[in-house]
Amino acid sequence: MPTLASIQNLRYSFLLASSRVGLLQHFNFDLRKKLKGRSFVLPISDGIGYQNLVSTEPWATELYKKILSNFEGSFIDVGVNNGQTILKIASINPKQSYIGFEPNPVCYNYSRKLIRKNKLTSFSLIPVGLHYESKIVELYHDTEFASGASMLSNFRVKKERYNQVQNVSVLAGDKVLEDKNISAISIIKADVEGVELEVMMGLKQSLSKFKPLVLLEILPVYNTSTENGRFRKERQDQLINLMTGLDYQMMLVNEKAGTLSRLQSIEVHGDMSKTNYLFAHKKCLSKLENIFTIQ
């Protein structure tokens, strides 16, 4: 008797193969998926959405569940992509206050459809990226809906792969949240492929005012003997100094164990299981220690 997971994996494999040969882009339909006992509609539109059939990063869902059960306020999602985090948060609490930022129009339109199809009325999207200033920037990616899209032209060495470029809008995060009349923020999650520094610079006032938890994906620096490695390491250190200066403690998320490890810096490494870091304001650390094992 096939399990629900095996059926979903089979559907995913079929849709992935259809996408690779260019067939899926010609069809629009809905599928259903269960997450944490809740049923969700997954729109498959213009070749996008089948990726959500496969559940990824189960550690993140558990982390969000613990945080949202103990910290009040909106969930701020910087880098929505195709709504992976939308589904995680909705599976925990479909009435959670959620604000997502996504500059890629293809990803924004799909995620907006995902929200509408599932009647997530407390979830909202803003079609911009976040930065420390408001302007037009270039977004470098390899496919229209790539999760690896970056606003830094020299973030990756393989520029021939990330050779699609489009102009997108970015806004200063503090200004946007001020205009939205946010009263509390539980956590800010940012998956922005190297632009964590600019995003956090633009949120300094909000960090000082609300003291939310901050979850950042910080990709490894493999080698500081290269120009790219030195560039990324310098930015990484600037980011940590910024957060430390705002009285934040950095912790590595141990994905398999579900624990946190205090860090002062990030070593040069190539371990892709060490890419997610939780930052907590010093005033929130004691509360966090009641939720997680912190080493």
In short:
With 295 residues, the chain is an alpha/beta fold. 33% of the residues lie in helices and 25% in strands.
Task: Report on this structure.
The radius of gyration is 19 Å and the shape is globular. The protein is 33% helix and 25% strand. The strands form 3 sheets. Strands 5-4-3-9-10-13-11-12 form an 8-stranded mixed β-sheet, with helices on both faces. The chain has helices at residues 4-20, 58-70, 84-92, 105-117, 173-179, 196-201, 204-210, 227-245, 285-289; strands spanning 29-35, 38-44, 74-78, 98-101, 123-126, 129-131, 135-141, 164-172, 185-190, 213-217, 248-254, 259-263, 276-281. The protein folds into 2 domains: 1-55, no CATH class; 57-130 and 174-289, Rossmann fold (3-Layer(aba) Sandwich). 38% of the residues are buried. With 295 residues, it is of the alpha/beta class. Helix 2 crosses helix 3.
Task: Set out the fold topology.
Elements: H1 4-20, E1 29-35, E2 38-44, H2 58-70, E3 74-78, H3 84-92, E4 98-101, H4 105-117, E5 123-126, E6 129-131, E7 135-141, E8 164-172, H5 173-179, E9 185-190, H6 196-201, H7 204-210, E10 213-217, H8 227-245, E11 248-254, E12 259-263, E13 276-281, H9 285-289
Parallel strand pairs: 3-4, 3-9, 4-5, 6-8, 9-10
Antiparallel strand pairs: 1-2, 7-8, 10-13, 11-12, 11-13
Helix pairs in contact: 2-3
